[in-house]
Specification:
This protein is of the alpha+beta class. The protein is about 35% helix and about 20% strand. The protein contains 15 helices and 16 strands. The strands form 3 sheets. Strands 1, 2, 3, 4, 5 and 6 form a 6-stranded mixed beta sheet that branches. Helix 1 packs antiparallel against helix 2 and helix 13 crosses helix 14.
């Protein structure tokens, strides 16, 4: 797959000609418009759309959009930093033709993720997609590393006919049960067909634990493409649901009680075509670099939660004994550990072994989440970090002394506490750069302030339909 480089005014060599050909092909298939998609700092998907005939111009000169969206909150109010949040200025959105796809769930439309540059042609320092791409490129240049990544998508399916703002599950069968699969079999069959038409390879699609909840696991790609795919998958899930009279929520907590929606990250490190999480001499076949990478993620996890669990609703999900990974710790196939090592089946380990980062939900901007997790892991390699003793079972059972001996501690229990950890973490802030790092802090604190007087049920309701 071609790696999309920074866009340039006038278009990169060959891109304009390619856009003409692709636009004609899409028009011949009845595609009338193209969705240009990105995710803001708050984790909300934002778009501009263009007629298909304007694809050539968009690839050459971009499409205008204000930089103010970098400091939007989920309720569309605006916070500011010393650089962002004013009504001034403009950016240009450039679609990535490598990821352009006709939307099977939205006939007449195509979709493409964008990178953002300034009107002077420089990369926008608040562009999360550019940040992730440069993080991946830097890992290749400095460490010879490549990555495979995937984002799990969990969502709750409700009735579109429910009273405004309320969530009424569209299926009430038992967790992981056949009843629920049957009740929504037409919807999920159409969903699988849409994924196949969009070349999204699906590993599993099944009912999950909470009422009306489902999960889809998709194939791994390079991190930028994996983040793109997570956005496309959600666009498709929502569009197909609407055609069935359903409404979906990807919010971390659809209600104040029970289990919320996760967005777990799966990540593996590769060098020279070999998976560093298998075939090594370390624990469970990890190489020394794979262990150090995992140790870096574990060490930075309290600060990472400001990026991976960025909503007030995230902290309704991050509760002990719910498989959300709320304590620092790692273990093989330990679903209560924040870092779960997956070795895979015998015979497939060199292909399948990876690490799962669990305290992540779908309020997270996937580009920021993957980029910061990779930056944390690379710091582990640079610092030759070592993993502590692994944990088994539920870490909530540990007393203070045993927890301390294992390096197990509770992750931040509020957004302000997560921001304090983030601001003290120079590795993550340096990786993001000052503009993007300050936007992360400002938006998180803005979200916290916006719901300061609300109880848990009100917080869940406030974010139920934002993601």
């Amino acid at each position: 797959m071609t790696t999309f480089a920074d866009p340039v005014p006038g278009g990169r060599p060959g891109e304009v000609r390619r856009a003409v050909t692709l636009g004609a092909t899409l028009a011949a298939r009845g595609v009338r418009g193209i969705v240009l998609a990105y995710v803001d700092t708050a984790g909300v998907g934002r778009v501009k759309t263009i007629p298909t005939a304007r694809l050539e111009a968009a690839v050459a000169w971009g499409v205008g959009m204000s930089p103010v969206f970098d400091t939007f909150l989920a309720d569309d109010s605006i916070v500011t930093t010393h650089v962002l949040g004013s009504p001034d200025g403009d950016l240009r959105l450039y679609p990535d033709l490598d990821r352009l796809v006709a939307l099977a769930g939205q006939p007449g439309w195509a979709w493409a993720p964008v990178d953002r540059i300034t009107q002077e042609g420089a990369p926008h320092p608040g562009c999360s997609r550019t940040f992730l791409r440069r993080t991946v490129t830097g890992a290749a240049e400095r460490h010879g590393l490549a990555f495979k990544a995937a984002v799990e998508i969990e969502w709750a399916v409700g009735l579109a006919s429910a009273p405004a703002g309320e969530f009424v599950p569209a299926a009430r069968g038992p967790a992981y049960g056949a009843i629920r699969q049957i009740e929504l079999s037409d919807y999920t069959a159409d969903l699988l067909a849409a994924f196949a038409a969009q070349d999204v390879d699906v590993d599993q699609l099944h009912p999950e634990y909470a009422a009306g909840q489902f999960e889809v696991s998709v194939g791994a790609l390079d991190p930028v493409a994996a983040a793109d795919r997570s956005v496309l998958v959600r666009q498709t899930i929502r569009a197909v649901a609407q055609r069935h009279g359903l409404r979906v929520s990807f919010a971390p907590a659809v209600s104040a009680e029970g289990v919320g929606n996760g967005g777990h990250l799966h990540l593996s490190c590769w060098r020279g075509g070999a998976n560093l999480h298998a075939g090594g001499e370390g624990r469970y076949g990890m190489t020394a670099d794979a262990e150090a990478f995992a140790a870096g993620v574990l060490a930075h996890l309290p600060a990472l939660t400001a990026v991976t669990a960025p909503s007030p609703a995230s902290h309704l999900r991050l509760r002990p004994s719910r498989w959300a990974g709320v304590f620092t710790g790692w273990g093989r196939e330990t679903r209560e550990a924040a870092l779960r090592m997956i070795t895979g089946m015998a015979g497939r380990r060199e292909r399948d072994a990876n690490m799962e980062v669990k305290p992540v939900d779908l309020a997270a901007n996937p580009y920021l989440a993957l980029g910061c997790v990779i930056a944390a892991g690379l710091d582990g390699i640079t610092a030759s970090r070592t993993l502590p003793e692994e944990i088994t079972g539920d870490p909530a059972r540990y007393g203070p002394e045993e927890a301390a001996a294992l390096g197990v501690r509770r992750l931040p229990q509020s957004l302000p506490l997560a921001v304090a950890e983030f601001r003290a973490d120079r590795v993550l802030r340096d990786a993001l750069g000052p503009v993007l790092a300050d936007a992360v802090s400002a938006v998180r604190l803005g979200e916290a302030a916006a719901v300061a007087d609300l109880d848990d049920a009100q917080v869940a309701a406030a974010y139920r339909w934002k993601y």
